[in-house]
Recover the amino acids of this structure.
């Protein structure tokens, strides 16, 4: 594992974050993000989920379930429905890896090294999120690339597509704080993954990502309306396809993003300080 030297003001290890200025904090985040990126370079297998998950999911749902959901011979229409919806799913699946990574760093003793360094504790977590956002953008690019190969059309505008990507990334970044908090609270990476799947599966499949809510039982249709993933999927779909309501689902998604970040980021940072 390559070590990255962080240049920081001459203060004692564990110094109060209030003594570390914004410029120094940004420098620390940049150095730690580079360290995390080097870890990925040394372990390319850690990118398998990013590279293969979009391909497997889109092929599975288009060719295995697409005929049943959209009707045989209407897979092209289903691609226009599925791919923008799956943009909402990418962020949640990748966010799960952040919690496992934080937990693994504690188990390997990596955080013991950070404990002796004069850096803001929050910079360690923010650097992880910066790198995971990069992984998320790669996953979205592969998803859209596969969509274009299968016949996806941008019926809206390029700005609409960029808006859908931005919404997905913002919401995914908010979810990362939940999984970081989970990773700091349980004992093993396997526990993080197990607990995360209990949340991921109902949210993903109880949403409008894969099928219209009108085809679901009444009680489940009601759940999809309050599911934040449904609002993100609906907003992305409207932006990519150039039709449908955008403002309402987009505002709800941004609202969830702000609430989740405001509620979990301070808790995650406080938990991290306590553990280090």
């Amino acid at each position: 594992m390559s070590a990255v030297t962080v240049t920081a003001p001459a203060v004692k290890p564990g110094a109060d974050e209030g003594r570390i200025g914004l410029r120094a904090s940004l420098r620390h985040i940049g150095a730690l993000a580079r360290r995390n990126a080097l870890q990925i370079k040394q372990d390319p297998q850690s990118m398998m989920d990013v590279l293969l998950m979009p391909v497997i999911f889109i092929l599975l749902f288009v060719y295995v379930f697409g005929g049943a959901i959209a009707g045989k011979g209407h897979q092209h229409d289903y691609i226009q429905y599925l791919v923008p919806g799956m943009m909402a799913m990418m962020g949640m699946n990748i966010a799960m890896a952040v919690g496992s990574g934080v937990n693994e760093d504690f188990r390997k003793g990596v955080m013991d090294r950070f404990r002796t360094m004069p850096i803001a504790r929050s910079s360690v977590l923010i650097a992880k999120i910066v790198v995971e956002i990069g992984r998320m953008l790669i996953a979205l690019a592969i998803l859209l690339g596969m969509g274009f190969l299968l016949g996806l059309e941008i019926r809206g505008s390029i700005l609409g597509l960029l808006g859908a990507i931005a919404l997905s990334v913002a919401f995914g970044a908010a979810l990362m704080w939940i999984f970081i908090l989970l990773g700091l609270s349980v004992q093993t990476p396997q526990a993080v993954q197990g607990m995360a799947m209990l949340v991921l599966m109902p949210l993903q499949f109880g949403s409008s990502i894969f099928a219209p809510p009108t085809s679901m039982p009444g009680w489940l249709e009601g759940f999809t309306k309050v599911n934040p993933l449904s609002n993100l999927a609906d907003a992305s779909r409207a932006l990519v396809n150039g039709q449908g309501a955008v403002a309402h689902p987009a505002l709800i998604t941004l609202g969830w993003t702000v609430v989740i970040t405001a509620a979990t980021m301070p808790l995650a940072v406080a938990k991290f300080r306590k553990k280090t």
